[in-house]
Amino acid sequence: MTGTPAIELRKINKRFGSVHANKDIDLVVGKGSIHGIIGENGAGKSTLMSILYGFYQADSGDILVDGKKVAVPDSKTAISLGIGMVHQHFMLVDNFTVLENVVLGAEGAALLSGGVSKARKELARLESDYGLKVDPDALIEDLPVGLQQRVEILKALFRGADILILDEPTGVLTPAEADHLFRILEVLRDQGKTVLLITHKLREIMAITDTVSVMRRGEMVATRKTSETSMAELAELMVGRSVLLQVEKQPAKPGKTVMKVDSLDVIDSRGVKVVKDVSFEVRAGEIVGIAGVSGNGQSELLETLAGIRKASKGTLWIDGDQTNLGETRIDPAEMRGKGLGHVPEDRHRMGLITKFAEYENAILGYHNDPKYAKGPFLDIPAIKQTAKAEIEKYDIRPPNCQLKTANFSGGNQQKVVLAREIEHDPTVLLVGQPTRGVDIGAIEFIHKRLVELRDAGKGILLVSVELDEIRSLADRVLVMFDGKIVGERGPEADEGELGLLMAGVEGDAR
Amino acid sequence: MFDTLILILDSTVRLSAPLLLACLAGLYSERSGVVDIGLEGKMLGAAFGAGAVAYLTANAWLGLLAGTGVAVGLALVHGFASITNRGNQIVSGVAINFLALGLTALLGQTWFRQGGRTPSLSGGGRFGNIELPFAAEMAHVPVIGPIYSELISGHNILVYIAFAMVPLTWWILFRTRFGLRLRAVGENPAAVDTAGISVTWLRYRAVIACGILCGIAGSYLSIAQSSGFIKDMTAGRGYIALAALIFAKWKPGNAMWACLLFGFLDALAIRLQGQEIPGIGQVPVQFFQALPYILTVILLAGFIGKAIPPKASGVPYLKERT
Predict the structure, then answer these.
(1) Given CB atoms, is B318 within the 8 Å cutoff of chain A?
(2) Which parts of the sequence belong to the ABC transporter domain (chain A) (predicted)?
(3) By the number of CB atoms within 10 A of the CB, which of A103, A171, B153, B172 ranks highest?
(4) Comparing C-alpha atoms, which of B212, B201, B207, B202 is closest to residue B79?
(5) Residue A389 to residues A142, A429, B263, Cα–Cα distance (Å)
(6) What distance in Å separates residue B29's CA from the closest CA in chain A?
């Protein structure tokens, strides 16, 4: 890249409460290039771009546009600096026409008629220049998502954007729509626009970008020329090599099959198939790990097995008890009744009610158990007794069951969930991201408990985006990519090999 | 029979005017995403303010100004609670209704010592009826004559303002920059925010517009329709206006027809009070009073089309954290 960079970020920092979303981020984006920023969900990519677009303010750091230091206090300023953004969730008014959406905020005068007819001409020009065709009088809600996204791009170009930020643009697109988008981006670049592409999909980075920067846990860990890197290297950079925590464990002694899944398909609310023909089994006394870059269907798989999401097809056996998931929807309570414990990926959203006291959280989902009830009333002393026993056994701190769980640290919150699920004696335990946002000490404790549970003859299905966690805990590793299980390896498998599988470069079970 | 019909329609127009003003007031607010159950309270406050000042100054226009001022003040309270502090809009609206109900009675009694009323207005303190040109000459022309001279002519200025507000509101909403942004902010405030427009300021302007129209509606009651403020003189009109707004699916033209319908029911109730209807007997007044609500419930239940409110209405805007 030559000349002044289009954008330069220096030492950008942003915190949300206790979360350090962006740590000392440096970034240089060359003019007239497509620059990819890759990282897992929650790595801080969207936050960084929102800072650039003036949606959030950085706590510290400098932003330079065209070599000049600028302040971006709001989106209006960003727009006037020639920065346009296509958000992950479209910022469109559904019952407005394309034209109305395009002129919103750039109407020109107090009366609409002048601005609207100008916009109509401008849209025609953009259509001929970039091949961005869309009916200006169509209502947004009647357009397919691919065209809605095109409207977002047109909005930015109409405002004179030279730098276009796209946040996870292909998440909602079909492969054909995504290809079309990439062609548009190439045309934009060739016309001298700068494109910043945020994604967690390696394939897109390789297909379209000139340069790629990798973010992990709020940090910018590397920047490479796309032609000089590989998917495997990027996958490794994304997932990272955190402190390798070795877990002491004996080789597994797998017993009978306690959980079996056959040809499971899941379609999400957008109508996209996110789990595709997944089959596997978990045996008593083993930990099966599901590895993969986040967003490849693991979360949906876990939620479906837990009864939170509906499958479109598939059969599930728990301890020999067969259910056709495509026909009957089993709710989470029934799943628990069948002997399934679930430690959800997001403890705040699904695992706990953080405004409730610890002892109340200790029986969530098990509150109908006669152990905790006196007729229609809760048996509070019995519940507290259970809670206190768990606090002791799992070393939950502070040891006070009256405290709201919101006041516990991440590690201790996770222990509350884990204790609840393990102590209710499941046949199979589903565990999602057990150590996300958890301190080192608690990680060790949680890992130990999971191995103990395995040795007690239970089956465990572990979903984690931390490759090290999978490798140190699991007895068998299944790799998920694009909703499919693309390979099975032993825990001793080479990291590079797993990385390639996770990147979808090669699969042996497609 | 024709004369009776004209009479009923004439009072329909008079009874609809304050509903229409309040309904359009609610339209501005709700189209911007701020639910306003406090129309009733703002009208009542305005009615009192207008009645008091019109009496003290013997000037209806100053009364109107005062009434509007009171309503805008209450609207700003609602805005501060629900826009700036992102509070619950229903709670804030209900609080304003209670505040207005209690405070108007208290202040009325303290200042004027007439049991919560304001003293009777006379002359310039009230808005008189306006005779349109040629009303008297036209009166004898068959059919068109009575319609013009009775129905269209002979109302006070606020009635004409109310009905003029309908096309004006439509024009503002669909032909101006402010209207486009107003409609957008009620549907997807994030789209407005990312377009570089202040959601807060936009919603405040909507709430102020709501206050102004509520102010005219309330003033209408005390210094145009009656000659002075009476305790709780809105008598649920704010809620009827809200029902009309839903009935009208948040559209200005529909709002006029909805308010005319509800006003007509009101006029009919008054007309039929204590009268036997052949074959049915006496219909209780309460039946007609309940009809607007019943119709609205039927509408909401989906029997007469679908009433879809602005998507973001009732939801305070907060930039979400990624």
Answers:
(1) no
(2) 7-242, 259-507
(3) A103
(4) B207
(5) 56, 20, 68
(6) 18
Of A47, A50, A111, the CB nearest to B175: A111
Residue B289 DSSP class = H
Per the structure, the complete domain to which residue A318 belongs is given by: 257-345+426-502
**Of A465, A62, A385, A437, which Cα lies nearest the Cα of A218?**
A437
Check whether residue A219 and residue A307 sit in a common domain: no
Contact A438, A414 (CB under 8 A): yes
User: CA of A40 to nearest chain B CA: how many angstroms apart?
Assistant: 13
DSSP letter for A72, please: -
B217: closest CA among B44, B56, B79? B44
Smallest Cβ distance to A92: which of B191, B196, B321?
B191
Strand runs (DSSP E) across A138-254, as ranges? 163-167, 194-199, 211-216, 219-225
- CB A237 within 8 Å of CB A216: yes
Q: What are phi and psi of A113, to 5 degrees?
A: -55, -45
Are A267 and A163 part of one and the same domain?
no
Tell me how far apart the terminal alpha carbons of chain A are, to the nearest angstrom: 39
Q: Which of A196, A213, A239 is the last residue before a domain boundary?
A: A239
Instruction: Read off the pLDDT of each residue in A242-255 and give the average, rounded to a whole number.
Output: 75
A109 touches chain B (CB under 8 A): yes
Question: What are the angstrom distances between the C-alpha of A116 and each of A110, A494, B159?
Answer: 11, 59, 34
Query: Span B156-169, mean pLDDT?
Result: 96
Query: How many other CB atoms sit within 10 Å of the CB of residue A189?
Result: 18
Q: Which residues pair with A14 in a beta bridge?
A: A22
Is there a single domain that holds both residue A168 and residue A313? no
Q: Which pair of tokens denotes residue A476?
A: 């068998």
pLDDT digit string, tens, across residues B59-116: 999 999 999 999 999 999 999 999 999 999 999 999 999 999 999 999 999 999 988 8
CATH number at residue A218: 3.40.50.300
Judgement on whether residues A162 and A210 belong to the same structural domain of the protein: yes
Nearest to B193 among A75, A94, A109 (CB): A75
B311 at interface of A, judged by CB pairs closer than 8 A? yes
pLDDT tens digits, one per residue of B107-144: 999 999 988 889 998 888 899 888 888 888 888 888 88
A139 inside 8 A of chain B by CB: no
Please report the ipTM that was assigned to this predicted complex.
0.85
Same domain, A208 and A276: no
Q: List the structure tokens of A258.
A: 């306690």
Where residue A425 falls (left for φ over 0; alpha for ψ -120 to 50; beta otherwise) is left
Task: Kindly list the distances between the CA atom of residue B209 and the CA atoms of B33, B159, B206, B212, in Å, as whole numbers in the listed order.
Answer: 13, 18, 5, 5
Identify the three-state secondary structure at position A26: strand
Model confidence pLDDT, tens digit, residues A260-288: 999 999 998 778 899 999 999 999 999 99
Interface test with A, best of B173, B188, B201 (most A CBs within 10 A): B188
Q: Which CA distances in Å does B215 have to B13, B22, B27, B55?
A: 19, 9, 15, 17
Q: Looking at the 3D structure of chain A, how many domains does it have?
A: 2
Written as one string, the DSSP assignment of A360-423 is HHTTTT-TTSGGGEETTEE-HHHHHHHHHHHHHHTT-SS--TTSBGGGS-HHHHHHHHHHHHHH
The answer to whether residues A16 and A136 belong to one domain is yes
Q: Which residues pair with A6 in a beta bridge?
A: none
End-to-end CA distance of chain B: 68
Same domain, A270 and A232: no
- Which residue from B188, B196, B319 is facing A105, i.e. has the nearest CB? B196
Q: What is the least distance, in Å, from the CA of B47 to any CA of chain A? A: 33
Residues of A with CB below 8 A from B180's CB? 100, 103-104, 107, 112
Is the same domain home to A198 and A102? yes
